[in-house]
């Protein structure tokens, strides 16, 4: 990231603005590049939708054999599925391609990004921006809409507002994980798959209710990598279910704070990584 | 022998991707845990679902994670070969004295060999430590499992080879590769054991070639296929392997004619 | 050039770059080595100069360029480009420099060439009038007009290089770094690129630093050559000086009307190879070939002739051999011949 002499709030804001602008410019170029192959784009979007839907089909098949999983009925599980899929889909769409960092280091093309007058993170996050990922996003959204009509919730304005809020906070948390995973590749260039265990793995985890899992696993995703704040805790609040680990009720509203903390951590890791790269060149 | 050397070379090449292997092990293990708990909840409700006990269901999960990379269950093509066909470099391969299909099969078996050690053993061992698995006690069953897994890799290769050869006719085979990969995920038992599928779908899925990749080897491992059923399972795998490889040869000779006539 | 009045645009003072390399020693043990890729480099380049920066592979050329462009942070020493410390203000520096890597295009593969320029305009915030003027100039001098609507993937290597050079100049950079700008290009493209660079330097005063393996690039473009090896500057001067320092020899290739015994009695030259009617004569690089040609033409049935330059590796090798003690095989000067020094 560009370190400037004016480390003031104003200077940081300007860098952020520059980054957003560069992101938009590059993402738009990639969208236009993709549209040069329309058939392929359509097929890939469909595939993205289908690969996400496969998980939901598995859930449906399970519920064809049982009425409840961990004490949760199908609409409730579908609500969990829809929220985390939508969050992951949005994060993947926005910054998922940062995982190409390792490949760019290996073939030397990261250097060409460092030559442009824009923050490297904005450029790498927009790298190969893939609209086909709207496939996963729209699939998650469909399941979410289907389930909201079927879960038993007293929809007050506050509860209605909670749904978009948790989706956005969840997307930011997943985005921070994508970013931290990419930053790790400054040290381990072919470990791109590692972050899948937290992103796609996190998605696989969060689609089931917490009652399914062992306490240690839940502790891990609450206190170490706080994925539980993506959808579990806010959804349990909406559904009026008890919280795992005897957590107090207000933890359901910690999403924004956790997201901010994760972003700060990921930004730190990224900075550290760029600095390491610029001193070793590999 | 030439193809042994190809397989050994591929084995060594994949052995050098240490960081990628480590990352893959972690990811497979994490997914193993998540799916294992989900299955526990499922079998808690229906203790004999699909004819499996809870321990057998858990073993199925970890067998799936162990074989995911080995049999390339989530992948629909041979990206390297597709790239060679797209760039036209494949013309050189076709004029080589070696057979194209056997060459790539040998390379794929070499890759599967190293990944069985690199990415198969570790998740299975972690799974065995964390959960009560129904792993076979006698070495003979392990032997049958390895044979069945090997046949699964051959069927997987034969399918991916067909997809790769389609590049000769399609401009961009990535769409077909993706459809093939998704079918493989779903119909291999990776998403859910085929025996748990609703009855009609279950019977159909167990006749399709993808069942050879995971469902049959996993059943052999957890003791759901013994005696005559074991032999029928292996024969099923072998039959699909032969049929798909033969289809691959047919397509290959058509592709060769196309290259010879049009010059690539 | 008025070297006294011109302020130095690029300044290096004892710049160092040390890498720590871990090597596998035995099964588990790893040893750490320090590698000095750049070892106390000091030089200045005044505004408007065109400099050739050459050296064998792994000498520290690209490490230097990476430090000059802000990609890499030096381990020690002081470095300024246009008054900016590249390691601290990478993004600000980016607006003042243009970079072309010979084998790595920055153009958008699937989009028409002109779209890549549009991105440069917006990303560098180039004022519309400046952009138009710069682009028009490049289009005219580099014959880009028919290429603007063609997707980059359909361009030839030479067309792409012309496109890349244009992209690097649209924002009016003070310095242009070129890494192997003519590698792999056909003769026509090479000539076009060279004359364009010459004109850009003369008209706009753009400072140019180029690395190359092609001595003709240096000969036609650069008044000054710097040779780097093992991270140190081993030569800094003009090409004639480099030739003299290396005691280089050029080769005169003559085609005679018939097969004849080796040419003899030409002062200052000796025949080093005969192949049918073709003969190779070596002569000191700093001398003119004209008297030799006159002398040969007077006594032999001369059909055709060519003068071959020693290539850079050969020159540098001789720089080290100390006064050209090792005589070269004349085939070594033939660009088509395999060069043992080039990996």
Order of helices and strands of chain B: HHHHHHHHHHH
Please tell me how large the radius of gyration of chain B is.
19 Å
| Alpha carbon gyration radius of chain A | 20 Å
The quaternary state of the protein chains shown equals heterotrimer
Shape of chain B: globular
Count of distinct structural domains of chain B: 1
| Straight-line N-to-C gap of chain A | 17 Å
Number of strands of chain A: 0
Structural class by sheet pairing and helices of chain A:
mainly alpha
Profile the largest sheet of chain B.
none
The major β-sheet of chain A equals: none
Overall pLDDT metric of chain A: 92
Number of strands of chain B: 0
Structural class of chain B: mainly alpha
Instruction: Please tally the helical runs of chain B, counting DSSP H or I stretches of 4 or more residues.
Output: 11
Q: In angstroms, what separates the terminal alpha carbons of chain B?
A: 29 Å
> Can you write the helix and strand succession of chain A as a string?
HHHHHHHHHHHH
Which term fits the overall shape of chain A? globular
Rounded mean pLDDT of chain B is 92
In DSSP terms (H or I, runs of 4 or more residues), the helix count of chain A works out at 12
Structural description of this entry:
- The complex is a heterotrimer of chains A (282), B (264) and C (343).
- By secondary structure, chain A is mainly alpha-helical.
- Chain A has helices at 9-34, 38-63, 74-95, 101-107, 110-114, 120-125, 134-148, 157-184, 200-206, 215-224, 232-239, 255-280.
- The radius of gyration of chain A is 20 Å and the shape is globular.
- Chain B has 264 residues and is mainly α.
- Chain B has one domain.
- In chain B, 74% of the residues lie in helices and 0% in strands.
- In chain C, the strands form three sheets. Chain C has a six-stranded mixed beta sheet, with helices on both faces.
- The radius of gyration of chain C is 23 Å and the shape is globular.
- With 343 residues, chain C is α/β, with parallel strands linked by helices.
Could you give the topology of this structure?
The complex is a heterotrimer of chains A (282), B (264) and C (343).
Chain A: H1 9-34, H2 38-63, H3 74-95, H4 101-107, H5 110-114, H6 120-125, H7 134-148, H8 157-184, H9 200-206, H10 215-224, H11 232-239, H12 255-280
Chain B: H1 2-15, H2 18-45, H3 54-70, H4 79-87, H5 90-94, H6 100-130, H7 139-165, H8 174-187, H9 199-205, H10 215-221, H11 227-262
Helix pairs in contact in B: 1-6, 2-3, 2-6, 3-6, 3-10, 6-7, 7-10, 7-11
Chain C: E1 8-24, E2 30-46, E3 50-54, H1 61-68, E4 76-81, H2 90-94, E5 97-101, H3 113-123, H4 128-142, H5 157-169, E6 175-179, H6 187-204, E7 207-211, H7 215-221, E8 224-229, E9 232-237, H8 239-246, E10 249-256, E11 270-275, E12 278-284, H9 290-299, E13 302-308, H10 312-321
Parallel strand pairs in C: 3-7, 3-8, 5-6, 6-7
Antiparallel strand pairs in C: 1-2, 1-4, 8-9, 10-12, 10-13, 11-12
């Amino acid at each position: 990231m560009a370190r400037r002499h004016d480390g003031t709030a104003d200077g940081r804001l300007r860098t952020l603005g520059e980054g957003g602008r560069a992101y938009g410019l590059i993402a738009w170029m990639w969208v236009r590049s993709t549209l040069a192959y329309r058939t392929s784009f359509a097929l890939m979007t469909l595939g993205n939708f289908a690969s996400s839907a496969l998980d939901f089909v598995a859930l449906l098949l399970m519920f064809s054999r049982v009425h409840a999983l961990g004490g949760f009925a199908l609409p409730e599980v579908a609500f969990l599925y829809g929220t985390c899929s939508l969050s992951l889909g949005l994060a993947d769409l926005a910054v998922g391609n940062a995982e190409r960092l390792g490949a760019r280091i290996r073939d030397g093309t990261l250097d060409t990004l460092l030559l442009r007058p824009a923050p490297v993170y904005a450029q790498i996050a927009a790298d190969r921006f893939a609209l086909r990922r709207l496939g996963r996003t729209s699939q998650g959204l469909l399941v979410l809409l289907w389930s909201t009509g079927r879960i038993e919730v007293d929809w007050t304005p506050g509860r209605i507002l909670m749904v978009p809020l948790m989706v956005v906070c969840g997307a930011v948390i997943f985005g921070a994980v994508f970013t931290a995973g990419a930053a790790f590749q400054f040290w381990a260039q072919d470990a791109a798959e590692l972050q899948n265990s937290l992103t796609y793995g996190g998605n696989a985890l969060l689609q089931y209710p917490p009652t399914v899992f062992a306490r240690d696993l839940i502790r891990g995703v609450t206190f170490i990598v706080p994925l539980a704040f993506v959808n579990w805790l806010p959804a349990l609040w909406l559904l009026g279910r008890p919280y795992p680990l005897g957590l107090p009720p207000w933890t359901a509203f910690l999403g924004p704070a956790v997201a901010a903390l994760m972003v700060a951590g990921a930004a730190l890791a990224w900075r550290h990584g760029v600095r390491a790269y610029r001193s070793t060149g590999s | 022998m030439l193809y042994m050397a190809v397989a050994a070379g591929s084995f060594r090449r994949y052995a050098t991707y240490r960081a990628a292997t480590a990352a893959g092990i972690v990811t497979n293990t994490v997914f193993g845990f998540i799916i294992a708990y989900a299955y526990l909840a499922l079998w808690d409700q229906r203790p004999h679902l699909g004819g499996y006990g809870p321990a057998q269901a858990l073993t199925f999960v970890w067998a799936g994670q162990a074989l995911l990379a080995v049999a390339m269950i989530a992948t629909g093509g041979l990206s390297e070969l597709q790239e060679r066909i797209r760039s036209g470099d494949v013309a050189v391969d076709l004029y080589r004295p070696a057979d194209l299909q056997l060459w790539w099969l040998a390379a794929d078996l070499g890759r599967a060999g190293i990944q069985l050690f690199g990415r198969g053993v570790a998740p299975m061992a972690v799974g065995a430590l964390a959960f009560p698995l129904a792993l076979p006690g006698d070495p003979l069953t392990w032997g049958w499992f390895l044979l069945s897994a090997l046949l699964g890799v051959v069927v997987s290769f034969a399918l991916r080879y067909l997809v790769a050869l389609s590049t000769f006719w399609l401009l961009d085979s990535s769409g077909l590769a993706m459809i093939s990969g998704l079918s493989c995920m779903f119909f291999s038992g990776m998403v859910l054991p085929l025996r748990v599928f609703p009855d009609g779908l279950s019977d159909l899925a167990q006749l399709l070639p993808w069942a050879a990749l995971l469902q049959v080897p996993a059943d052999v491992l957890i003791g759901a296929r013994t005696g005559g059923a074991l032999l029928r399972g292996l024969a099923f795998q072998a039959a699909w392997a032969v049929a798909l490889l033969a289809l691959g040869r047919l397509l290959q000779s058509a592709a060769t004619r196309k290259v010879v006539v049009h010059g690539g | 050039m008025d070297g006294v009045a011109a302020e130095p645009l690029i300044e290096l003072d004892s710049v160092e770059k040390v890498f720590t390399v871990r090597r596998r020693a035995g099964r588990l043990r790893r040893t750490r080595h320090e590698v000095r890729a750049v070892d106390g480099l000091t030089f200045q380049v005044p505004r408007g100069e065109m400099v050739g920066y050459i050296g064998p592979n792994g000498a520290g050329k690209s490490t230097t360029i990476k430090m000059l462009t802000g990609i890499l942070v030096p381990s020690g020493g002081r470095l300024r480009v246009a008054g900016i410390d590249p390691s601290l203000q990478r993004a600000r520096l980016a607006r003042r420099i243009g970079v072309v890597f010979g084998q790595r295009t920055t153009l958008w593969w699937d989009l028409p060439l002109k779209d890549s320029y549009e991105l440069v305009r917006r990303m560098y915030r180039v004022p519309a009038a400046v952009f138009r003027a710069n682009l028009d100039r490049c289009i005219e001098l580099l014959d880009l007009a028919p290429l603007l609507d063609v997707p980059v993937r359909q361009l030839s290597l030479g067309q792409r290089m012309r496109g890349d050079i244009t992209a690097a100049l649209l924002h009016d950079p003070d310095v242009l770094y070129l890494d192997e700008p003519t590698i792999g290009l056909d003769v026509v493209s090479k000539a076009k690129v060279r004359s364009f660079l010459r004109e850009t330097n003369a008209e706009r005063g753009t400072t140019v630093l180029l690395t190359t393996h092609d001595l003709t690039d240096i000969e036609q473009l650069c008044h000054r050559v710097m040779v780097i090896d093992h991270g140190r500057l081993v030569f800094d001067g003009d090409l004639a000086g480099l030739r003299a320092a290396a005691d280089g020899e050029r080769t005169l290739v003559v085609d005679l009307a018939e097969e004849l015994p080796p040419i003899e009695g030409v002062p200052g030259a000796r025949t080093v190879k005969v192949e049918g009617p073709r003969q190779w004569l070596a002569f000191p690089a700093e001398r003119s070939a004209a008297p030799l040609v006159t002398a040969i033409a007077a006594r032999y049935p001369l059909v055709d002739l060519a003068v071959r330059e020693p290539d850079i590796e050969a020159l540098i090798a001789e720089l080290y051999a100390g006064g050209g003690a090792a005589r070269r095989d004349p085939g070594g000067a033939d660009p088509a011949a395999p060069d043992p020094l080039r990996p």
